[in-house]
Amino acid sequence: MKKTFQKWLVMLLLLTLVVYCVSACGKKSDDSTSGDGVVQEDAGTSQQEEEPYKIVFAYPGAPSGAGTEQMLAELNAYLKDKINVELEVLPIAAGNFAQQMNLMIAGNEKLDLYTSDAALGNIFISDVNQNRLIALDEYLPEYGAGLLEVMGEYLPATTVNGQVYAIPTLRDMASGYGVLVSKTALDATGIDPKSITTYEDFENVLATFKQMFPEKVTFATIDPSVSVWTHMINDYDPLGDYIGVLRDGGRNSLEVVNLFEDEDYIEDLKMIRRWYQEGYILPDITTNNMVLPMLISGELIACASNQRPGQEKGAESLMPGGAYAIQLGETLCTTQHVSNVIMCVPITCERPEKVVQFLDLLYTDPVVVNYLHYGVEGVHYVKTDVENVIAFPEGVDLTTSTYYGHNTSYFGNQLISYVWNTLDSTLWEDTKAFNENAPKSMAYGFVFDSSSVKNELTAVQNVLAQYRIPLEDGSVDLDTVLPEFQQALKDAGIDTIIEEKQRQLDAWAAENGK
Length: 514
Known about the structure:
By secondary structure, the protein is of the alpha/beta class. It has 19 helices and 16 strands. It has three domains: 1-170 and 336-449, 3-Layer(aba) Sandwich (D-Maltodextrin-Binding Protein, domain 2), CATH 3.40.190.10; 175-335, D-Maltodextrin-Binding Protein, domain 2 (3-Layer(aba) Sandwich); 452-511, no CATH class. The protein has helices spanning 3-26, 66-83, 97-106, 124-129, 140-143, 145-151, 183-189, 199-212, 228-232, 263-277, 291-297, 311-315, 335-339, 352-364, 366-374, 427-437, 454-472, 478-492, 494-511; strands at 53-60, 85-92, 113-117, 159-160, 163-164, 167-168, 175-182, 217-220, 236-237, 246-247, 300-307, 323-332, 341-344, 382-383, 389-391, 419-420. The protein has a five-stranded mixed β-sheet with strand order 2-1-3-13-6. β4 and β5 form a beta hairpin. The longest helix has 24 residues, at 3-26. Mean pLDDT is 90; it is low at 1-47.
């Protein structure tokens, strides 16, 4: 049996022993546990008499308003009764979040929990290496029973040297790759969306769009900071940073290769360059920040898009007449997919056991999750006739609600929360099935420690920032720019990084019986 899973088995056995002992003690005295069977701290007072522990929880988001205060008033009454804590939320603008977390931890400010998003510059392994995070293993069996049961299979993605340093949020834990296409435009061509299964098929569709709708923009990405290739193809396990990857999503081999010299990748670039030269791709794709308004207005027909449950329904508000979500690449689950958004307990936390109790509720208790996701029932949302589906109250919409627009993937277990009536009512059931059926990379659970090659890493990242997106959007000449890019990577030390990554991966594989 693999060591990672042995570890979780030991945790669960310890949990069983704890529960047994608590039950036995409970027969002698009713004061040793709460009504929930949670062991209480031996502080000489009951939970009701002890001052609630204040948890300061930071996450990327808009500043708090009146709706947040109203939500916290009700949630804190519930939390005090359940685990005797008081929650203070600290939403921080996304662009400043990573830097602000570093400053708060370095300054030993009051901070007990934060949601780390890799897309915003938070680097999990760096936080671990710089001793910013508390290892949670000693707290999870006793205080995180439900969390362990729900998240056990995903904890390897945040385990370093045998210790769990963060908890991934539970959301879509994999990704497919493909495109969103205007339903109106595709229906006008007479092409059956189910017949579009390959990139060659989609290239023919682009040609048809260009011919039928010459006044429109045929294809783009919504975010210029993410390339066409990354959103639409991307059939590799990036092993954290794409600087040394596994082919075929890591399904068949643990050989680390240079993505930027791989034949399949180069063929992908040739195809995207051809699309650009044919006029299918927005000319200023690498810099245009107005793509989303173009999509909403109907000026843009199709865009590259990761594929996950609910894509078509979610796109109805973006694309006039609706959209088809068409998957062209394989669905993948890698360490990076799982660890992209994680919940961390920093070293500034004085009582990790109380935070783990709160985390346990975030993954098991819909009441707590729905307060954070949607606010107060009857004020910020109302239940509909469809089970688990909510809507705005009469007279309230997204522009007037005082608690709306939060990224619900930042708060524990998204899959136990309500669903807005603008989305598929089966969204969370579909997401669970999506997660369960997504094939995992052979390197799932491997976390690369780049500390020994940090100089090379910085140099390579600078090269990537200069060359990668224009190449992957097709906007530069491949014959001249690609060789320059490849040589610049060599000069920066990419081979050294790949060699070190392979060494660590081989050691990890041997330790985990891969």
